[in-house]
Queue: 2 jobs
Job 1
Amino acid sequence: MAAASYHTPRLLPALALLSLGALLAVALSVSTGSVAISTAELWAVLQGEGEPLHHTLIFDLRLPRSLAAFATGGLLAVAGALMQVLLRNPLADPYVLGLSGGAAVGALSAMLLGLGSAAVSGSAFIGAIVSAITVFGLAHGTGSWTPTRLLLTGVVIAAGWGAVVTFMLAIAPTESLPGMLFWLMGDLAYARSPWPALTTLLALSLLLLPLGRSLNAMARGPLQAAALGVAVKPMEWSIYIAASLLTALAVTTAGSIGFVGLVVPHMLRLILGNDQRLILPACALAGGALLTLADTLARTIIAPEQLPVGVITALLGVPTFLLLLYRSR
Amino acid sequence: MRRLLVVLSLLLAHIASASSERCVDDDRNVKVCLDAPAARIIALSPGATELLYAAGAGDKLIAAVSFSDYPDEAKALPRVGSYNRFDLEAILSLKPDLLIGWHSGNPTEQLAQLEALELKVYYSELRGFDDVSRTLRRFGELAGSEPSANAAAEHFDQGISALRKQYQNAESVRVFQQIWVNPLMTVNDQHLISEATRLCGGINVFGNLPRLAARIDHEAVLAANPEAIIAGGMGEENRSWLDDWRPYSGLLAVQRDNLFFIPPSTLQRPTPRLLSGTRMLCQHLDTARGRR
């Protein structure tokens, strides 16, 4: 496989193909559900005619949910790719530095207090940001920080959040347990409005595009990056802040959905090579498409009953990833 | 002389206790036998606490688990942990003569451990209306409070059969029973709530689902288009779940304003309060019939 070159001729065709895949995923998600809607009926609804029930189903339930799924998947995959560059560790994912733990403590506290879903989202976001600031502040300490130090701080903080989450589950009244567990497993049913996540995904992807060259240098190590004229410290800061913000928004939208952020960037690197200018937008598209498909399956396989989406992302992703890894040797 | 009196009284006490030996079947159909009426009972589920009070055995109750909040006296009882993880040492130190366990809710190993320590454990598992009055009678027998227990059981049975009679020929109403909001959850026909719904002439639109408590999506509710939506709430007063349905103006239940709230503790727990919850449910369904 060709090493990451600085001129990727495959950029446009690859992105065009992924965009097509993403569009198909959203289209499939909008057209399937526990109520069967035929293509003709779907067409009528899209033209503003058709049954009111179908109109409600498509515009009030399915479309916001699949857009939210797409945005969440995209956010997680981009955040994962950034974390892997920042920490130079293939095991890094958006949650490795304890962000999802902080968000979980926030969300579960709101649930324990019996607050509504807006408060749950709000406190999840606050929890994630508090966690990000804590980790960064502590890793910074009195001296300089290294990726190893940041990683260790994050992993230990994550373990701390984990203990708090377990404690909350242990003392929670029985009737709030299902809600808490589904939040922890990740669930698109919470998604209210897809727009904050979707606009952030788009904006940050566009902002990161011009940084692709510097990110490529960063992926090779700070010394090489510095030699290539990249301002390493500010760059590390921006990557950390961007990844934290993306992850915080993702968990706020749909709880802590695992797996997407770890595996999608790796999958794409195996296929497309490690050029961040291509990988980041590709992550946004492929992560979004994967989660949209997974969510569609999760809500239709045993409809009207619903499965947690995390089950499906792993079931789809694990064999795909293993196959790619096996073939790449 | 004094020694003789002591011996005599001991003997009498022995005879008295021998004659008051009592045995009941628990919900596993295992005999639970006591030499004398239980005087130190620990209830290992909030439901058991409520049933013991209703059976007139509240004064024999020496401890309960967390969330045992009904009746008010129960809140003052010492706690021995939660229903899913209790403190064996605390239980032993209180020297109970009877434990009321919850077959499907308590950890099996902990119950087995308590039995291995020679404590009497009654396993309760209530699934329907009949179980409520049967359990009340059994608790009365175990605690020696038969008169009030039997009266409570009688009152419950009569109330339920009156409702059954009143609504047996009522026109059916298709009902969506919402038991949780995030995730949206309902129950199938095996659940107590559905037994109450059937009694009031209602049909649970999700009765055929395979799981007792199932997680569903909004789409399924819109497709089922129930005539009435009955919701419990996070608290005993919270009606906000029902307001979430109002934007779906295509729903028959919304068009006719058949969105009803029933405090979850009166309809979702197999205790004597089930009578008032069922009565409320029947009235709501009758209101729905009136809006046709």
Job 2
Amino acid sequence: MFRFVVRRLIWAVPTLLIVTFLVYVAIRIGTNPLASYLRSNQRASQEDIDLYVEQNGLYEGFGGFVRGYFQWLGGFLTGDWANSIKGNQEVWPDLKNAIGNSVRLAGIGALIGIVLGCTLGVIAALKPGSLRDGGVNTSALVALSIPPFVSAVILQMIFAVYTREWFPGATWLHFPTSGVYPPGNSGFNLTAMAEHLVLPVTVVAIQSIAVYTRYMRASLLDVLSSDYLRTARSKGVSERRVLVRHAMRNAMLPIVTLAALDFGALFGGLIITERIFEYPGLGNFFLEAYSNGDFPQLMPWMVIVVVAVILFNLLADLSYAFLDPRIRLD
Amino acid sequence: MTTATLLEPETPVDEPLSGDVQGLTQKSLSPRQMAWRRFRSHKPAMVAAVVLILMLLFVILSPLTARYGVNEPVFQTEGGVSNRYLSPRSVAWFGTDEIGRDLYSRLIYGTRLSLVIGLAAAVIGVAIGTFVGAWAGIRGGLFDDMLMRVTDIFIAFPFLVALLVMRNMLGEISWLAPILGERTSIRFIILLLALFGWMVVARVVRGQVLALKEREFIEASRALGASNSRVILRHLLPNSVGPILVALTFSVVAAVIAESTLSFFGFGPQPGSGSTSLGILVASSKQNVLTGNWWMVVFPCAVLLMVALTINLVGDGLRDATDPKMQRGHA
């Protein structure tokens, strides 16, 4: 076990280096950092431009890319980050806020998805082929087919316009549709924050509930038809105990793996939801940086998301190996 | 006894079950016929298939079903009567947009373009994925390992980010321009989506190949001197038609939704001369949420949802019908 973990961790380092280098090349070619710098700072002097090129290591040619990459990596690792091209701002404070906001949104959405989805999946799988099963399974597919921007726009329309128009008295039905706090708010305010989270979390939850429902149902159905459950029943173990101790524990294995993978993807994948609700998370941060061609903002973003994805991938593998004693490593 | 329980798991497609050998009077069915029977008994999928075919007919026969041209106002503005933002009425069933064009007709044209984009991207993606997956599965080794690692990362990586970064990069590489065309052209979008569409398919096909390649009938054909490509083309692919078909349906949905998402953020195709796509129409709902033009929001979203849902349901039914393992749940 220990050796497996160490070997995977050692392998993760070259993977990270290669992937981040490819990302670096993609962004260098795709956004053309120098041109976008000149677009944002039209009156920059030659000295400013030289300084920008120097700081970010924007050298030309293949050798220049390699050299620039290592210069960038060194700066990134030692905390010596270049400032953003728009407004010459420090990148980390904004990025840190964005990470916090995104983790909150993704975490709550994933939690609701796992709890409700697994419950629904179990409910469906206990009576396979019944009307209940068909109903749950089909509605999960319907929910999966709703693109997030469609549900977001529809929710916005209902709660920003129509509840206010039709039920002006029912203030509990009026949800804010953008941001984290109302304009002009300063400091921490839990109720305002929770209110602003309701609609974005709903959008995230619709998708994740559907995904977990289908996974849980398939996983439990698979376990329920296995031989060891028959053995347990024939030993005279009570039905309840068979379900809870034998079936559920095994059915949860793939769910844990999925959750680990899913969280890695959710981390940077809430772009659509965040954009529509103007929620200042990682997704919005990326879109902003992307449309400005802001190289000093884009690179740390990409690298943090890549690291998160690879780490959670690793975690998924490890959790599977750790939880399932049938899997032998080494 | 239902036909479902008769089917052995992973029965090769081209090996008919001979039901009457042991004196059974039941007419023998090929696995393909059985799959069709199971598909028919899957009610949501059948309903979805009918709706999908109706929609396809509507879209293919657009010269007959559309009431106005794609860029034609419902009537010329005269005497102070504006044709902008009309709510649904007899002259425009689904209302009109900001320059007085009929939303109903535009939805038909838009769906047509989006389905073409989705189908083309999915077919190209599935073709690449099948090729790569089959090759990796049969050869194994370093290529296989690399493929798994690369697809692992791409599948877990935020899809839209990868799409946007790739879009920018491919648009900047000058020697690719003659192949890909302009960044906002339909061809560019199709190829971009195909570039992301092959990975899931490759993994599915690889899994199939790995599961089948140790089986006796493959060994038999190997013993007769069949080459890798012959084994793939004659035995492995025909036996993987089911999963590939299922992957194709889900790829079409993924491509249609991806096109809409790109359009929603303003990075989608821009077909010239007032032509439109479902994504562009859905994207225009953004501006109409707060102004209360509900028809501009509801109808495009409903059509997109209907396209995604019906194809997904058909794919789901196909999977249940072609995957014998799924039947255990229903039995």
